[in-house]
C-alpha cells in the first residue's frame, strides 16, 4: 500500500520526533530537508537563521533540495518527508502540520543543543523562533507563492502543546484510512489550547448534562480560528467545556480562518479575537476547569 506523508510545523512543535515515530509505526522510509539544511549551514559556518537569510537572496540554495524532494516524491511509494515545503511539491501526499503554542515551543527548545542555534532565555528563544519561521515563510512566499502558516494548505493539523510526540503520532495514525489518506481536512486541538470568546456563564451545568446525554452532538467539530499561534473558539464552547471536564486530550475542530482573513461584516479574525478574548474570560475559564493556559 502506498503511503506518502509530508509533515511540517512550527519551530519547537516536535515534528521531527513525531515523523520518526511515524516512520517506525508505519514501517516507511524517513527523509528530512532540515538535516540537509543544518549540514549545509554548518559547512558554511552559518547559524540556521543566517542560512535562511542567505537563502532569501540566493535561489540556488533551495533549488538543489527542491529537486531531490521532487524526485523522492515521484520514485518512492512509502515514506514520510519531514520538510517545511515538501507538501508543496507533493500535492497528492497526506499533508500534516504540527502546531504548538508559542510559549510552549520556546520552553521546549530553550537549553537544547541544536546545530547553529543557541538561546539565552525562553523569551529569547521565542523571539528567535518566530524570526526564523517568518524568514522561512517570506522566502517561500517569494520563490513559490506558498505560505507555511496558511493552515488551509494541509489535510491534518495537530496541536502538540499538551501531548508528547508518541501520543501525537498515535493520533495521526488513528486518522489514517486504509488508503493512507483522510476523508476530509480536520484539526485536532487540545481543549487546553482553545481560548474562550464567550462568558463562562454561557456554559451551564444543565447544558453540559444535556450534552452528555447526546454523544452525537459531541462529535460535531468545534469551530475555531487561529491568530498569532493561539486558538480561539468561535462556536462550540459547551463541547470544549465538556471535553475539559472529561479530561479529553484533543477535540476535532474546523478551522474557519486565521490572522487577518475576514471573519464577518468586514471584521478580521484578529480584530474579533482582540475584542472577544479578554483576560477576565480567560481567568474565569481557567478557574472553572482547573488549569492554566500555556500560551
From TrEMBL:
Record keywords: ATP-binding, Kinase, Nucleotide-binding, Transferase
GO BP annotations listed: nucleobase-containing compound metabolic process
Top-level lineage group: Bacteria
Listed GO MF terms: ATP binding; dCMP kinase activity
EC number: 2.7.4.25
Pfam families named among the record's database cross-references: Cytidylate_kin2
Catalytic activity, as annotated: CMP + ATP = CDP + ADP; dCMP + ATP = dCDP + ADP
InterPro entries: Cytidylate_kinase_dom (IPR011994), P-loop_NTPase (IPR027417), ParB/Sulfiredoxin_sf (IPR036086)
Protein name (Swiss-Prot/TrEMBL): (d)CMP kinase
Species of the source: Armatimonas rosea
